[in-house]
Design a protein that fits this description.
The complex is a heterodimer of chains A (about 325) and B (about 350). Chain A has helices at about 5-20, 45-50, 60-70, 90-105, 135, 150-165, 210-225, 245-255, 270-275, 305-310, 315-325, and strands at about 5, 25-30, 55, 75-80, 115-120, 145, 170-175, 180, 195-200, 205-210, 230-235, 235-240, 255-265, 290-295. Chain A is of the alpha/beta class. In chain A, strands 3-2-4-5-7-6-12 form a seven-stranded mixed β-sheet, with helices on both faces. Chain A has a five-stranded mixed β-sheet with strand order 9-11-10-13-14, with helices on both faces. A two-stranded antiparallel ribbon of chain A has the order 1-8. In chain A, helix 2 (about 45-50) links the parallel strand 2 (about 25-30) and strand 3 (about 55). In chain A, helix 1 packs parallel to helix 6 and helix 7 packs across helix 11 (about 315-325). Chain B starts with 11 loop residues before the first helix and ends in a 15-residue tail after the last helix. Classes of the chains: A alpha/beta (about 325), B alpha/beta (about 350). Bound molecules: thiamine diphosphate and magnesium ion.
Chain lengths: ~325, ~350
Amino acid sequence: MPEMTYLEAIRQALWQEMKRDERVFLLGEDIGVYGGAFGLTHGMLDEFGPERVRETPISEATIVATAVGASLLGMRPVAEIMFMDFVLLALDQIANQAAKMRFMFGGRTSVPIVVRMPGGSGTGAASQHSQSLESILMHFPGLKVVNPSTPYDAKGLMLASIRDPNPVCFVEHKVLYKTKGEVPEDDYMIPIGVAEVKRAGRDITVVANNIMVMKTLHIAERLAQDGIEVEVIDPRTLLPLDTETIINSVTKTGRLLVVHEACQTGGWAGEVIASVVGSPAFDYLDTPVRRLGGRDIPIPYNRGLEKFAIPQDADIEAEIRMMVAGKV
Amino acid sequence: MAKPKVKEINTQADFDERVRRLELSDETLIGLYRTMCTVRHFEYTADRLYAAGKVHGTMHLSAGQEAVAAGTRLALQPDDYLINHHRGHGHFIAKGADVNLMMAEFLGKDTGFNHGRGGSMHIADFQSNNLGANGIVGGGIPQAVGVGLALQMQRRKEICVCIFGDGASNEGVFHEALNMASLWKLPILYICENNKYGMSMDVERVVAKLPIAQRAEAYGIPWSTVDGNAVVEVYEAIKEAADHVRAGNGPYFVEALTYRYFGHSKSDRNLYRSKEEIEDWKQNRDPIMRFTKHLLQAEVLNEEQAREVDAQAEQVILKAVEFAEASPEPDLSTLMDYIYA
Ligand SMILES: Cc1ncc(C[n+]2csc(CCOP(=O)(O)OP(=O)(O)O)c2C)c(N)n1
Ligand SMILES: [Mg+2]
C-alpha cells in the first residue's frame, strides 16, 4: 500500500471523487493556483478547471451558503474554510440553515454539503488561527461532524462525507497534515458515526481525537513496557457519536479518560463521560472518570506557552498512571 | 442602466398605454387580479385564525404588498426558482403553491408542506422549485448565489428569484452575495420589497443612502425601482429585469416600494407609525383597489364580475381552512423524523 500524508490522502479523496462524480465541486478562498493556505488543493485547478475549483472572495458565510444553495439543485459542493476559526463567520449558514433545512421543510429536501476546515494549534498561528471548535458544531442536530486522525481514515471519511446526503463538517488538523500512513489507491469509505479501537488494552480506555490519538498511541507503547495496557478509541465522528463502542470498552477496562485539545470547559469529553456514567458501564468503573482537555485560555503565540496550552505526552501519561494506580 | 423614478400614482391613460404595449390580455389581467385577491384573503383569514386562537406560532402577513407577488410571478417562468423570506405567503401563492397545504402548515398540521415542522416562516414546495422561506433575516440571500451557480454549472435556462425586505439589505451577507453574484454573472433576480419598515425601523433611519437599490451599483449590478403597489408596473419592471438575467447578463436588482398593513408580526402594537399613515396607504394606494379601478375603467371587468372573482378567491381560502382544520396533527411518535436523510 502506498504511503502518503494526511493532506495528500484528503486531496486524493477529493480528486478521485471529482473524477467519479461531476456534481462534486470545490469552493473556497485561494484554493486555485495557491492551492489553499496549506496546499491541500494544489494541482486541482489545472486538473479540473476554474468552474469546479471555484475561488471565492473572502466571504465565509456566503461560501457556505453557496454550497447550501447549490446542493438544493443536486450539486455536491465541498467548501473550504481556510482556518476552522473562520467557521464562526459562517455559523448561521451551518447551524441555522444547513443543519435545519431538512427538518424545517418536513423531510422534503436534504443538504448534501461538506465543509472542510483545519483546526488545532501547534503552528504558532496564535489565538484566532488555532482553535479546536468541534465541540461547538456538535450542538446542531442535522449536522454531522467528522474528525479523522490518520491518512487512511481521512480518505475514507472524506469519500463517505461527500456521498452522505447530510451536511458534514469535516474537521482536519493542521499538525496532522504532514503525518504519513498507508492509504489504498482504491475507492473505500469509512462509515460516518463509527468509532475505531486504535489499540486494544485491558486496563484503561482512553478516548481521544485527532492529534491526541497519535500522542496516546505513542504513550500506550511506553506504558505497555510497564505492563499497563491502554485501549485507545478514536471516535472519528463526533456527531453522531458512537457511544456504544466506548461503553463496551469501559465495561471491559473499568477506567475512562477522555483527551482532547479543545478547551476543557464545554468540550466534547463531557458528552462522552455523561454517556458512559449514565450507562450500565457505570457499574464496572474502578476509578472516577477523568478528562484532559486544552487549558481554558485562547491559544498563545509563544512556542512554549502554545505547547502547554494543550495536553502534552507527559500529562497524558501521568493521568493514565494515576488512574491505573487507583490514586485519583 | 435603467433607473426609472418612482412616479406619482399612475393615471388611467398610463395604465391603458402600458397594457397595450405589454400586450396583456384581459384574461391575464384578470389572472393578476385573482392572485392578488387570493393572497389578500389568505392574509386576512390567517389574521382571523390567529385572533380566534387557532394559530400556535407567529406569522408575517403581506397584506398591502400583493402587487409585488402577482406582478413578479407573471414576469417569470413556472420553473424559475424562488428563494423567499419570512413575509412570503404572497409569493408562494402567486407561484402556484397549493393553499390547502399552506394553510395546513400554518396550522401546524401533518398535511402541511412541511408536516407541521416549519409553520408560516419556513414554507417550501420543492416540487414547484420553491426553495423555502427563511426565519433568519437575509439568510436566503447568499443561498441564492448557490442556486444561481448550480443553474449556471448545469447550463440551465431557469433563473433564481430572491425576495427579501428593506431590513435584510443591512445584513453582511447581502453585500457578500451581491458581489459574488455579479462577479460570476449568475442568473439571479434580486427583488427587495421595501415596505418602509423593518419591524419598527423606518428605512430612513437605517439605510445610509436611499434608494436601497443603488447599493447594487457598487457591485456592478443594474437596478431599478418601481411602485410596488401598481401591479402592471411591477410586471414590466420585473420582466425587463428577468429578461436581462435570462439572457445570461448576470444579476439584476429591483426595489419595489410598498407597504404592509398588518403589524410586523403578532407582537406588533404599531407604536412606530401613525394610524393616519396606515389609512393613507389603505385608502389611496391600495394595490387591489387601484388595479380594480383601472380594470373597471378599461372595461376588462364590470363590478359584478370583479366581485365574483373576489368571492371565488375567498372560497378557495375558506376551503383551505376547512382542509387544514380537518387535517390531523403530526403524530408525536414522529418527533425525531426528518433530522437526517
Ligand atoms: C438575523 C435576524 N435578525 C433579526 C430578526 C428579527 N426580525 C424578523 S423580521 C425583522 C424585520 C425584517 O425587515 P425587512 O427585511 O424589511 O422585512 P419585512 O418584515 O419588513 O417584510 C426582524 C428584525 C431575524 N428574524 N433574523
Ligand atoms: Mg421591511
